[in-house]
Amino acid sequence: MSQLSASALSFTNPSTPPSTGLTLTKFHLDKPGSGEVQVAFLYAPINPLDLLVVSGKYPVKPRHTVPGTPAPSYVPGYDGVARVIAIGEDISPSAFHEGDLVIPAGLGLGTWRSHANVPASSLLNLTSGLPSSDVPARSDVLAFSILRTVFVTAYLLLEHSRESLKPGDWIILNAATGAIASAVVQLATLRGIQSICVIRDRPDPASNQAAIDELKRYGAHTVLTESELEESAAGIQGKRIVLALDAVFGASAERLAATLAPGGTLVNYGTLGGGGPAASMRLTSRVLFWNQITVRAFRGSTYLAQRTEEEARDMVVWLAGLVVQQRLRMPSVQLVRWGNADKDGVRRAEDRPVGHAKLVWEFEWFEQLK
């Protein structure tokens, strides 16, 4: 087997903004070694988590580097979907086949590259896990690229943020047009849980209505703008809200906390509002003392670590099945063609306001691998 031409976006040292430290490197890839699988990536998202990693603000670092560079050049990208194109020795014949769709089995795989040789143990085989009757469409393959960072996170948020969520319960969440929030809404709907979605104020009424319509299609019961929530309680009257999911922090989180019923729970899983480690929020005595709410932080990797490898795999495959069966829909994303990519996609992600569609790398050989 001849060497394969490949490319990767990588960094040697953390940088802020992240794009300033990234370099597009082209290299040749040898055939996979013993225990390795060679893959061609199809889609890979540009997540806020990835930008934190490149800027040195996230504790889990990339585990893979570009071969042949004088100093270690780390490949970011914690989510994505790839297709198996070659299999090394000492791998069970039933574990992988050429053409199988795979995703990272854990954090740090490095998906911002065209091709890779990776340990078979670092991949989760979706093709072998799904029933043979579940044939993924192209849109499903795109959804697979965000299974771990979006759908798994959304599932774990609902499972672990509160001891018991029952059909008929109400939840409220901000940054609701984001990928994770829209996945939460869909999973909550499947469980009979009612959701109130809070979106940022948009100057254009048409784009505001488009966001509302999309969330309603996902199953949202009520959609409010941040200013509507701040100015009036009409949209939440008569609703006993037991869980608030906050991805913004600051004033937006304060507004969510004020809507909670006594004994409710506020969970923060992001700081899209900015401010970094010094960001703060204020909670009144009424919210904390009178209403006895619980405030918690959420990190998905902590809850994933509590599951066995088999349990985690079964959860991911189950979610993939929901996607193929059209019971979970892909949130809105914007594709960025990899091709001879430079750092433009990352720059666009850095400048992207809260609530805009997630950017996803689309690799140019998808058509060749169909």
From TrEMBL:
GO terms for molecular function: enoyl-[acyl-carrier-protein] reductase (NADPH) activity. One of its GO terms (biological process) is fatty acid biosynthetic process. Residues 19-361 form the Enoyl reductase (ER) domain. Its EC number is 1.3.1.104. SUPFAM superfamilies: GroES-like, NAD(P)-binding Rossmann-fold domains. It catalyses: a 2,3-saturated acyl-[ACP] + NADP(+) = a (2E)-enoyl-[ACP] + NADPH + H(+). It is found in: Mitochondrion. It comes from the Eukaryota. This is enoyl-[acyl-carrier-protein] reductase. It holds the Pfam family ADH_N. Keywords: Fatty acid biosynthesis, Fatty acid metabolism, Lipid biosynthesis, Lipid metabolism, Mitochondrion, NADP, Oxidoreductase, Transit peptide. It comes from Aspergillus carbonarius (strain ITEM 5010). GO terms for cellular component: mitochondrion. InterPro entries: ADH-like_C (IPR013149), ADH-like_N (IPR013154), ER (IPR020843), GroES-like_sf (IPR011032), Mito_Enoyl-ACP_Reductase (IPR051034), NAD(P)-bd_dom_sf (IPR036291). The lineage of its organism: Eukaryota, Fungi, Dikarya, Ascomycota, Pezizomycotina. Belongs to the zinc-containing alcohol dehydrogenase family. Quinone oxidoreductase subfamily. It is an enzyme of class 1 (oxidoreductase).
